[in-house]
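Incident log entry.

Two folding requests arrived from the same account within the same minute. Monitoring flagged them as a possible duplicate submission, but the sequences differ. Recording both here for audit purposes.

Request one:
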Amino acid sequence: IETQRQTIEERKKQKKALICNFFKEIDFSTCPISDFGELKNGYAFRSDTYDCNGSHRIITISNVTGDRYTNMSNHNSVRTLPKDIKPHQILQHNDILISLTGNVGRVSLCSVDGDLLNQRVGVLKVFDSFYKQYVYHLLSSRHFEQSMIDRGQGAAQLNISKTDIENYNIPIPHNKSIIPILSNTLNCFDERIEVEEKLLGKYEEQKQYLLRKMFV
């Protein structure tokens, strides 16, 4: 298990190093996120409408962990859609989600079509699909998360705003043909990390099984 954890950390370090070295070797300019997309807020669900047997899952800030996809092992649900819910609050697969409260600046992708967006989670609607994966990889970096933590306001827990995110600057290569190449390479790293994390989960399940058997 420990070896597997080290393998995962090494993969993450390799991905980070790839991004850093990439921008040392190319010419680029910086542009605010608002040039590429708009952040939209979630719906204010009432807790008394939650139903554990509901067919519509709700994504809250606890589900946006910073992993590639939202962690829905624990989630709230509702049976019916609110009449006043907006189209962007019914999510699509691979929508870019950002936590706006508490652990601010965490970024994950929506794992399936049809999940619902709760308040204090933002969805970044990228105008041009050409940039979508590229923007996701830049925002899923530690640099973005730390930048949002630095901008966060609030005594009890941090909060960031639509403006904080849309004013964040990202590097854009002058040679735009490089963008899909980098995005696809980083996707491969993420897919490999996912495989390694699933394997780690299997090892941990085996350990718990063996521990239970020891005391039967």
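Request two (distinct sequence, not a duplicate):
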Amino acid sequence: ESPMHITPDGWLQSPEVKILKSPNCDLRPEGTKISLLVIHCISLPPGEFGSGAVQDLLMNVLDCESENSHPYFQQELKNKKLSAHVFIQRSGEIIQFVSFNNRAWHAGVSRFKNKDKCNDFSIGIELEGTDDQKFEPAQYENLIKLTQLILKTYPEILLENIQGHEDIAPGRKTDPGKYFDWDFYKKRL
């Protein structure tokens, strides 16, 4: 199998990676060095996996209006424009939504090493999951592979610059939560 790599324009290239180009992104501030990797988790509706709703949200096509739409979508997600660079499904499948060279809208109000607006200088990876259950071995396997590639491509991201969303937005965010095995993940990098 051909090894996964990142093209000069910031896209993953591999037969196992699906590309869906999200409109929810923009250019990073000029001269920005990518120096932070943020791990998140998400499921939509909350606690449900494989519905396709996460992909719809990140592509801006989630139905938050009709009477058939989930009440959570109507209350929490209406008019929200969100994205992440990459989403790793329970199966381990990797979907890339935003070029690593561009700014994805994943961190919100956030701060790392005395710098605000983490979206400017970070890469965001969403794992399909919740704060209160374990992640799948296939997710760790592909997250580790992907992280190794990101660290090689963006040398400003040091090991201590790999953070959970909860670490850069404390009190506001709780993901990826206590079931994310940081030791297992970091030891394999």
